Amino acid sequence: MEPSTSRFSEPAHDTVETDVLIVGGGMTGAGIMRDLALRGIHSTLIDRRDLCAGASGGNHGLLHSGARYVSNDRESAVQCRRENVLLRRLARRCIEPTGGLFVAIDGDDPDFAAAFPQWCSVAGIACELVTPDEARRLEPHLSERIIAAYRVDDATVDPFRLALQHVAHAGSLTGSSYRPHSDLIAFDHDNDQLTSAICRDSRTGALLRIRARQFVNAGGAWAGRIAQLAGCPDVHLRYSKGTLLISHDRLTNHVVNRLRPPADGDILVPGGTVSVLGTTSLRIDDPDLAVPTVAEVDRNIAEGAMMLPVLATTRYLRAFSRVRPLLPAGDDGDDRHAVRGFALYDHQGDGLTNFCTITGGKLTTFRLMAQQAADLVAARLGNTTSGRTDTTPLPEDDSCRWTEPGAAPRYWHLAGNRDDMVLCECEMVPQSAIDEIVRCAPGAEEEMTLEAIALRSRAGKGPCQGSFCGIRIASYLYDRGHYRDRTGLQHMRDFFNERFKGMRTVIRGPQAAQMELAEALHCGVLGLDALDDEDDRDPLTQRLETGATDD
Amino acid sequence: MAAETPTPIPIINFKQQALQLLPDGASFDACLTCGLCSSGCPAAGIENMDPRKFIRMAMLGMNETLSTTPWIWCCTMCRRCQHVCPMSIDISQLVLLARSNWPNDRKPAGIVRSCTLIRSTDSTSAMGLPPEDFVFVVNDVLDEVRATQPAFAHLQAPIDKQGAHFFVNQNSREPMSEPDEMVPLWKILDLVGADWTYSSKGWAAENFCMFAGDEAAWYDVTRKRIEAVDDLGCSVWLNTECGHSYYALWNGINRFDLDVGFRLESLITYYARWIREGKLPVNSDWNRRAIKFTVQDPCMIVRKAYGESIAEDMRFVVRSLVGADNFIDMQPNRSANYCCGGGGGFLQAGMNEQRRSYGKRKFDQIQATGAAYVLTPCHNCHSQMEDLADAWHGDYHVVHFWTLICLSLGILGENERTYLGPDLLALLD
Amino acid sequence: MTKERRHVSCQLAVVGTGLAGFAAAVFAGNRALDTALTGNTGALAYTTGYLDLLGAMDGGGPPLDDPWQALQTLQATQPEHPLCRLSPASIHAAFTEFTSFLGSAGLNYSPPGRRNETVLTPVGTLKKTLCVPSTMAPGTTALTDKKPCLVVDFHGLKGFSARQVVANLGGSWPVLSAARLVFPGMEHGEIYPEVMARSLETAATRAHLAELLREVAGDVTTVGLPAILGIHRPDRVRAELEKLSGLRIFEIPTMPPAVPGIRLRELLEQVLPQRGTTLIPQQKIKTLSFEKDAVRLDLADNYGPIVIEAQAVILATGRFLSGGLAADPNGIREPLLDLPVSQPGSRADWFREGYTDRRGHPINRAGLSVDDSCRPLTAEGRPFDRRLFCAGIILANQDWIRSRCGAGVAIASAYRSVEQVRQLLGD
């Protein structure tokens, strides 16, 4: 095997050391980090963007009961059932036990509906028949055309809070650290060992060498690429793009699933104060090119409205796409038929003894995936402690509490401090939350981007999608000295650009009014569309700038 | 006696209720969260609440906070937030909903007491003045005027006159506390030759049942007053110088989908008409010292009801009375005017500190005009602005229209000058 | 209950009380046309107060110093642009007439000049505009002359940071510093510019603030404040504050909800009726029908139904924010008359991928197509009705956001429409 990294061997960059380097800050990576820490092992977690930037953050937030998979993937169904029960107990604050409904509509395959309870029973999944009328009493928005309904133990999970708390817990146990926006560009080898990884800070371009004894690839949809950097060509994944929508309101209390073989727009999941509708499924070749399209949005809405007619007229705030990493299996062309299991590669066959890859799977089974990877890593390190994530409750950490919808105003109102200004008015995020995040949230930095703050709070998640609070939070960060020059304006612009990606395909109805106001403000007034050349626009400014000093 | 443990306030699901309250073309989920509502709301900041926060908390499901916040008694439901909202969202509906949800023993006692008193007699008087006492006071004052003011030896104050054109209402404060203040009104009606009557039943103007959020009581009072007008067969229910009395009846009729055979009109409209027609030959010649006047637009008859037309009538009357050069408008004004903080039952709610903080904006508005007098055809505005002058150390006075009309006409009796400052009193000497 | 339908009869009805609608009412009033004006005023309250004519060419390009020359280019490259419906000389006349009106009503503006002014934004970037409120104009002078300057912000005022303004302008403005004050009487909690501005209309607050400013200014003689210098007579508030403090004072616009827009709105709502316009504020037209003898507009205010009968109508209902256009899933619609809307082929084409793309989004160029007289056209390309005209950013073939031409389009097309109405009624 050819070492891939000789050009980075000059000592021109900082070096840090850790026992285990975990690549990929999705739920699996964060889970491995905590699992290792519970065994007393120090790790460093890196992500080229930030926590849950891939499929972990881009999903329904559905903690499956397992019922979704009973018809075609019993193993996943059983795994989901077990993990669902565990997580509800151990990560209580990240989970809302909403319960779920499976509903069939006039025209859906009655045989599928009839077989459903039997399939559930085989997988050990609780499933209760309810009449269509009862179902509508539980969820008044349900269609009149329901012909069958079952109640199951689906729940919802806030993956961001879950990941943040995992990272915070690992940090408190072993001092394990998390580094966002660290793009892995190469590994150093020494025979059958990887010795270090080279990362580039995607914001500053600075290089960093991370020395470690063990290396874990938890790159999700990007795991194949990461494995290749390590010289392992055998991780083959298929990429299935799914597009989901977020509505302005929470439309149901339960998770509502369509009782039919998995298809487009067949699940609506409450997410705190909103609902998430999805998903479509489309094979793509490049996981970096997953953006929602208007056609996918319309498809989701049309299908979803069959179950819940209100979905045709409700106000949507954003749409997003995620890439499911699917393991190769029998290929009939429909990725929904692929099994949703996961795989752990030890890469022994590639001649490496301290590198492994874990990928596939789904949010609900992240803990199990993390445990299996950590078992391997611990064994390779000679650590004989067994995994404890199935028994250890996830502790609370104040700095992680701001992602919960509707929580910020409760804390703020309880504190009753009128000098604690609410900066994000939609989700009512006060400046004290921003202070706490910038000071001590996992991944906190001196000059945090607005996106990073938004990931750790509800800022920018409401109807204005950050168009006002982006300005207010930036000006607050200038006030506090976190932003000191024009890069603060770039952070603002980048934040608005990022929020727009999600809004672009759902701008219609009232959202068009919101967008017009936002764009008039951001571009028409503040000139964020012309930021790059603003310094060139005024010759006098330019001339003086060269000779001027900043006081 | 109040119960030892107060009744808990039930928790409302505001979002669910909001969906059922959708006003025409504006829904709560259309909010752009721009903040114009809060920027323009005098209650913003009181109890750490403002209209935008109220909407957002409703949408975020903070039902317990909203169900129990005392802010709903500081919001006067003046609907200025809706007036400045590009999406025309009406937050006052949610506030009224929250008010109606409070158990009676938790609501501000002053408002509840006023509503109870309104229902305690056929007068519908918030001060509990029974019909016979009202009749007595009116006749007593009338006798005295006839005896002491020779020009008005034949003054009339008809009560229960069948078929009169105008059914005239009266705020209870006059017959109860300052009966002489009724006289200028009688003189004006006499002068223009109006065919009018009081009624011994349903004569009172005020309706705190609406402010209490007590729908059943509001309906009850509305019905009683409609019956009183119908009993006498009057064509016009003429609302005198009281703001919410108009709104409570007019809105009550619409809200409860009642059918009435008479028109609801404001005395302000008639002042303007009578001046234009020459029936009230007022002029401003008396104002030789160029004393400055401003006018307070009561939300209840301007923004929430008649709109610009009555605001314009009010200004026409004031200019005619004091001289165009001596009239200075408050800013903002007309439909955009601020509530004074006396509305919505705030004056009766016992939350003085909050009420005065709310009213600071009104006080600044008045101060900015530099006017020595504020004219307003609303009792709550009147009382609140007087109180604000005390609380924030202003040196203006508040007067009724009828006082100034009679002053201009030279027929303001000795006992009818309570609200005049020394400068105006000096002019009369 | 007896409910009377109120009737208004007039020569011209203007639908929409944004900048275009108000400008149309101003121009109509100046031409002695009997005018009724109605509409929802919200969006106007969001403006900075700057009146842009043309700050950049459509589709990107550098900020423009000479908008008049750029208009010539526009004539050649985009003859369909609403600013090309009238000559630069007429546009100049329209700006002059409109700003003179505002000045005569107590809100002074710099007259339209030969070049764009460079003005400050709330975050310390710079912007090109044509006419500047006189409360803000000294900021442009201070910027050009690089005068030593202090930017002041206030405890409790969110979204305006003096440190931010200084951080972003300091590189080009050698002696620029920041300070924070507690606004008199507003020691705690959140405060709004509107409330501060109202308070500054009282002598007591002005005296108090002047004292605070004097103390904090030190040796510096020029001070920039967020736009809070009164709503009603800002020039007087500024003059008195300058007199009391001995400082040169200017305003920097703030993010919404901001004072300059509220100023414009309240001023126009007050002054137009005084000058004879019938104003029915904060109401939306329900139906607009073209009858043989008159155009009939039906609406209702809180009190009840109103009918306006007019000889001509100017539609100035704005875009999505004001309800002049509706973004339905199946396409963009003009909801009042269902006029054909020029628009991209499908919803997928409304927006580009990048939000701040310099080329602007295709949806921004959607709108009503008009003839040279500003009359909306039917699908067949004929005027919808000879009595119907159209003004403001509802017009197609312009991107007011990217080209910084919102006020320009509003004022110019209002001017053109009113001229055409006068011609029609004079016939």
TrEMBL record, chain A:
Q: Which keywords does this Swiss-Prot/TrEMBL entry list?
A: FAD, Flavoprotein, Oxidoreductase
The record's section on Pfam families has: DAO (PF01266)
User: Would you say which domain of life the source belongs to?
Assistant: Bacteria
Residue intervals of the FAD dependent oxidoreductase domain: 19-375
Q: What cofactor requirement does the entry state?
A: FAD
* Keyword Flavoprotein (UniProt): yes
InterPro entries assigned: BFD-like_2Fe2S-bd_dom_sf, FAD-dep_OxRdtase, FAD/NAD-bd_sf, G3P_DH_FAD-dep
One function term, GO molecular function aspect: glycerol-3-phosphate dehydrogenase (quinone) activity
Give the UniProt record's GO annotations in the biological process aspect: glycerol catabolic process; glycerol-3-phosphate catabolic process
The UniProt entry's sequence similarity note says: Belongs to the FAD-dependent glycerol-3-phosphate dehydrogenase family.
| PANTHER family xref list | ANAEROBIC GLYCEROL-3-PHOSPHATE DEHYDROGENASE SUBUNIT A, GLYCEROL-3-PHOSPHATE DEHYDROGENASE
Protein name per Swiss-Prot or TrEMBL: Glycerol-3-phosphate dehydrogenase
Organism expressing this protein natively: Desulfofustis glycolicus DSM 9705
UniProtKB/TrEMBL annotation, chain B:
**Cross-referenced Pfam families:** CCG, Fer4_8
Asked if the Swiss-Prot or TrEMBL record annotates the protein with the keyword Metal-binding, the reply is yes
Q: Which residues form the 4Fe-4S ferredoxin-type domain?
A: 21-52
Instruction: Enumerate the GO terms in the molecular function aspect.
Output: 4 iron, 4 sulfur cluster binding; metal ion binding; oxidoreductase activity
Which InterPro entries does its entry note? 4Fe4S_Fe-S-bd, 4Fe4S_Fe_S_CS, Cys_rich_dom, Helical_ferredxn
Keyword entries, A-Z: 4Fe-4S, Electron transport, Iron, Iron-sulfur, Metal-binding, Transport
UniProt-listed Gene3D superfamilies: Alpha-helical ferredoxin (1.10.1060.10)
Q: Which PROSITE patterns match?
A: 4FE4S_FER_1, 4FE4S_FER_2
Query: Mind telling me what this protein is named?
Result: Fe-S oxidoreductase
Q: Which organism is it from?
A: Desulfofustis glycolicus DSM 9705
Source organism phylogeny? Bacteria, Pseudomonadati, Thermodesulfobacteriota, Desulfobulbia, Desulfobulbales
TrEMBL record, chain C:
* Annotated ranges, domain FAD-dependent oxidoreductase 2 FAD-binding: 13-409
Q: What is this protein called?
A: Glycerol-3-phosphate dehydrogenase subunit B
Which terms in the Gene Ontology molecular function aspect does this entry carry?
glycerol-3-phosphate dehydrogenase (quinone) activity
Keywords from UniProt, A to Z, are:
Flavoprotein, FMN, Oxidoreductase
InterPro entries found in the cross-reference section: FAD-dep_OxRdtase_2_FAD-bd, FAD/NAD-bd_sf, G3P_DH_GlpB_su
> Which Pfam families does the UniProt entry name for this protein?
FAD_binding_2 (PF00890)
Report if keyword Flavoprotein is assigned: yes
State whether keyword Flavoprotein applies.
yes
Source organism superkingdom: Bacteria
Q: Which GO terms describe its cellular component?
A: glycerol-3-phosphate dehydrogenase (FAD) complex
